Amino acid sequence: MNKAYFEIIRPGxxxxxxxxxxxxxxxxxxxxxGSMDKRNYLIGNKLVGNKLxxxxxxxxxxxxxxxxxxxxxxxxxxxxxxxxxxxxNSKIEKGSCYKTFELKDGDQLDIISTNKSVYGYxxxxxxxxxxxxxxxxxxxxxxxxxxxDGEKFGxxxxxxxxxxxxxxxxxxxxYFNSKIEFIRVLKGTNFNFFSEKxxxxxxxxxxxxxxxxxxxxxRLEGQKIENIAEANIKSEGLIKGVIQVPPDGxxxxxxxxxGTIGGYPKxxxxxxxxxxxxxxxxxxxxxxxxxxxLNEAERLYKLYEIETQNILGxxx
Length: 316
Known about the structure:
CATH class of the largest domain: Mainly Beta
Strand content: 25-35%
Shape: elongated
Structural class: alpha+beta
Helix content: 10-25%
Radius of gyration: 20 Å
Strand order of the largest sheet: 20-13-14-17-16-19-12-21
CATH topology of the largest domain: Jelly Rolls
């Protein structure tokens, strides 16, 4: 029996398979990768009745145009996304995020764009077929690791479906992608490398998200951060969310596909509770940082986890 798949007619800007990422590989230079916006990824899987670690199609800005072949499936789009369903009979249906829909053989899904955000997710019942490397099919295009030989999808490629199945009833949730006034951070291990004026600038002035932003990192522009110790240090381990300051004084935030070591001083690290919303900031967005202590960061993360579970608990 032939296996159902999606044919890629237009690949979009950056379409890849992502799951919860791969853990415990930092010692060989492999970061977690995985979905940039974890909450939206989880909501998608829950809406179609999947295990929460099932692979989803993550896209950035403009999504793909894909056509279903040899099957039917229930899918859902999560994030702030504009999309249409193009039925085989030429009927066009305007898509609604966080509400499941059924696709049949010959139907097309046109993911037009994200709206004032970067990432969106297409999840299907039973998930996509991906190649698993170190326990994850997440694609890291910088390291060429994961499904599709570690590459983003291209035109005419096929994305196979694990199992033909659709839900008997539609499923939906009312969810709002909220924003916050500040990105909250912990002081970095090299915080005292920076002048008092630089620290004051970092916590009081706005920074702009530059166009030099991808799944690996987010470069910021604004008033320069002055280093009074060493502009370069011996390479040290890095983690997701850490903020490095290179010699030009423009901070760089390490994101999901970041390098695991680096030699720029680290002024701060974004708390885990704010990471989803950080990754959705588009070029030109303004960022202000707010310092919190470790116990507050832990409390905020617990609150984030409770809120996420409450949201997932609303989905039948």
